[in-house]
Amino acid sequence: MKDRFSIGEFSKLAIIPTKTLRYYDEIGLFKPIEIDPNTGYRYYSLEQLEPLDMIKYLRFLGVSLSDIQEHFERRKIQGFLQLLRNQAARTEQTIQDLQAKKVRFEKRIQEIEEALDMEKIGIPYTRHFGQQLIFRLEGSISNTRQDIEFSLRRLSRLVPEKKQFFIGMGKVGCEISQGNLRRRQFGSYDAIYVLLDEEIHDSAHVQILPEAECACVFYRGGFMDAARYYPSLLRYMDEQGYEIAGDSHERIRIDPFMTQEQEHLLREIRIPIRRRMVCDAGTQHAARGAAG
């Protein structure tokens, strides 16, 4: 029976590209059993099919070529067992990473679909929001695109190394303080932040945006257009018996990097609220008497 096969023949037997066999030879992982000194042709034997199958199997499991080569040089059962354990641990980490990405996809898809279905454009309403993790930078920031972009870059430089941090995709927000809201000063911001998908430890810039009942309004336009929506939102709050209970938050929901369709660009303003305290006449009279 024939026991010498050219690289082309062996490639068909093993169901592996000749290019891969040549590369394995070059790195010393899997060498031909014989090389013709005159022609340089590579020849393989049937006995080599089994170790090649093992290489293919380990590669399918995601084991690196360097780890496979290291095992082949030692060929010890405990080493092989540890090889599998190590790759199993890497696979588990990959699964966790993919699950985290899946959650990000689902969350972002849900938010964009919700934004596309939003019909109350320019109409104030109330809504409850759960807590959110943010990476925040305080400071006076004008509502110009240039100042906001520079502030975002300053913020990104504060992120610890090796942490995943992405700007955009509807995660950027700006704040106006309660004091400036009461003074009706809507032309600049007091802080800027990015919503976090995962926690960043050991940073004073990581904060929790607490859950809150908010008065909200969606609008089409940029940050500079937001100022004209605040008066109507505050008027709505007053009519409904609410008062300001926290800093306002302006957030981009659908930005120009997602679409060039102007009719789909969307931003949101939300102001935390609480019911305004109303005293009856007797209570007011008693309070005035106590004060006198």
Explain what this protein looks like in three dimensions.
This protein starts with a strand and ends with a helix. The protein contains nine helices and twelve strands. It is elongated, with a radius of gyration of 32 Å. Helix content is 41%, strand content 23%. The longest helix has 41 residues, at 77-117. A hairpin with a 6-residue loop joins strand 2 and strand 3 (42-44). It folds into two domains: 5-75, Multidrug-efflux Transporter Regulator, Chain: A, Domain 2 (Orthogonal Bundle), CATH 1.10.1660; 118-275, Alpha-Beta Barrel (Multidrug-efflux Transporter 1 Regulator Bmrr, Chain A). Residues 281-292 have low confidence and may be disordered. The protein has helices spanning 7-14, 18-26, 49-60, 65-74, 77-117, 145-157, 178-182, 230-239, 281-291; strands at 5-6, 34-35, 42-44, 125-129, 132-142, 172-176, 188-195, 206-209, 212-219, 242-244, 248-254, 266-275. It has 292 residues and is an alpha+beta fold.
